[in-house]
Design brief:
single chain; alpha+beta; MS2 Viral Coat Protein; 2 domains; 6-stranded antiparallel β-sheet; 3 helices; globular
Length: about 160
């Protein structure tokens, strides 16, 4: 595995905020975590990856992103000035897995990964690569009419 480094990702805030994922450990599974000031440990976003050899000899390669959403209860405080500390309301999780045959090549896996990224980015009959770019990634997913971005957000839209 390559040396772990910080990962910089822009979130959905307006204006966009750069989140820095700091490497925490590379064993047994690589883990990165944000270190946002003023946010408790349990409220930091986490990114993990794993490679598991399957019984048939193929591999399951997984990247998992967990983004806790914080809430404050009683933000205005009590008559005595007490304000409850922020806590995690819920965690939104994204998991991307690749199942690769033991005979697959780097080129095979890279091609599959590139194609899936384009599909998740909103590839359609009019664009071969999707609609995501650094400045509009979140809005492109939220507002996309393409099949896979819609699939990822349709549960929330239907609620």
């Amino acid at each position: 595995m390559a040396t772990m480094t910080n990962l910089l990702v822009k979130d959905d805030a307006s204006p966009l905020v750069e989140q820095t994922f700091i490497p925490i450990t590379d064993t047994p599974e690589p883990l990165w975590r944000t270190q946002m000031a003023g946010v408790p440990f349990e409220g930091q976003a986490r990114l993990t990856q794993s490679i598991v050899k399957q019984k048939n000899g193929s591999y399951k390669i997984t990247a998992k992103l967990e983004v806790p959403v914080m809430e404050t209860l009683g933000a205005s405080g009590t008559s005595f000035g007490y304000v409850a500390p922020a806590k995690v309301a819920y965690v939104t999780t994204a998991i991307f897995s690749v199942f690769a045959d033991k005979r697959s090549t780097i080129a095979d896996r890279a091609n599959t990964f590139k194609m899936m990224l384009a599909i998740l980015a909103g590839a359609s009959a009019t664009t071969a690569t999707g609609t995501l770019n650094g400045a509009s990634a979140a809005d492109a997913v939220k507002n996309s009419t393409a099949a896979f971005p819609q699939l990822l957000v349709s549960l929330i839209r239907a609620s």
